[in-house]
Write a structure and sequence with these properties.
- With 297 residues, the protein is an alpha+beta fold.
- It has 2 domains: 138 residues, Butyryl-CoA Dehydrogenase, subunit A, domain 3, CATH 1.20.140; 119 residues, Nuclear Transport Factor 2, Chain: A (Roll).
- It contains 13 helices and 7 strands.
- It is globular, with a radius of gyration of 21 Å.
Length: 297
């Protein structure tokens, strides 16, 4: 049985879109910090390309532009809404078992290491974030980026440069080597279980920051300084809490369980052998939507 010309064209378009899907998902996730929103953006791109049909000269560039514009509009809407509602939250973490990497997760992360990078990306103006993500991460040329943000190529280049500078100043990249990261994270929880405040302080960078997202109606909680964070840290390692090691968005972290139920996802930024930042997602609704099979299996 042979396909008709129309059916063959549809099959070809579907195949080409599916081949592009991992990259499109990674772009959308880097832009939006939400797995669900990224999936929605990619699905919207499919609806648009299926309506447009086969008459697209460079499908990959077309799809990249469409997904980028969808994400840019979503970020702008989110910023306007959040300013009104005073809502803030951490990006969605990707949870994996240590040493075992899901190909789909790897594609989404696009070589990113640690949730801290996504936290910094979330502070950038939408156009800066788009220019940086598309050019520095995915190699999209500035003339294509310019058409998305309605700027000149030189202005798009400046957007990416400003974003790059802000990211470099924030130092969101952890120490190389998962073993070294894990050693610092384990020392943190061990000191917390022992109730040893001095030892806790010793494994924390003096300027450590802890951010906690507890759900709708609560802005992200923030604590700074080794002494302040050490006092809070003891509660995450209490005897009723089970700490399960995991890789969180490509860096060492943990999922906390109480009575068999996940209550917090903790992402660590390890720099110079010490804990420089901790991001705690404790919003029950968001935790329920995140794939934790790597930590529960």
């Amino acid at each position: 049985m042979t396909l008709s010309g129309s059916a063959a064209s549809d099959a070809s378009l579907t195949g080409r879109f599916e081949a592009a899907r991992p990259r499109l998902g990674a772009i959308a996730y880097r832009m939006l910090g939400s797995i669900e929103d990224a999936q929605d953006a990619v699905q919207e791109a499919w609806l648009r390309v299926s309506r447009a049909g086969q008459d697209i000269e460079n499908l990959d560039a077309w799809l990249t532009t469409v997904v980028a514009r969808i994400c840019l509009n979503a970020l702008r809407d989110r910023r306007a809404r959040d300013r009104e509602e005073l809502v803030a939250h951490l990006p969605d973490p990707i949870v994996e078992a240590e040493g075992e990497y899901d190909p789909e997760h790897r594609a989404l992360l696009a070589d990113a290491v640690g949730l801290a990078l996504f936290v910094v990306l979330d502070t950038l103006p939408p156009a800066e974030r788009l220019a940086f993500v598309l050019h520095d991460v995915f190699g999209v040329p500035f003339d294509q980026i310019a058409s998305i943000v309605d700027r000149t190529p030189e202005a798009a280049r400046k957007l990416a440069s400003r974003a790059r500078r802000r990211i470099e100043e924030a130092e969101p990249v952890p120490d190389a080597g998962m073993a070294a990261q894990r050693e610092a994270v384990d020392a943190f929880f061990e000191a917390g279980r022992d109730g040893d405040l001095d030892k806790l302080v010793s494994v924390l960078d003096p300027g450590v920051v802890l951010r906690g997202d507890f759900g709708p109606g609560a802005a992200v909680f923030r604590a700074e300084g080794a002494a302040s964070v050490a006092k809070l840290a003891r509660s995450y390692a209490g005897p009723e809490r089970e700490v399960r090691a995991a890789t969180i968005s490509g860096a060492a972290g943990a999922v906390i369980f109480v009575a068999g139920q996940p209550t917090a996802i903790m992402a660590f930024l390890i720099r110079g052998g010490r804990v420089a930042a901790i991001d705690v997602l404790a919003d029950p609704q968001r935790i329920a939507r995140i794939d934790l099979s790597a930590a529960t299996g």
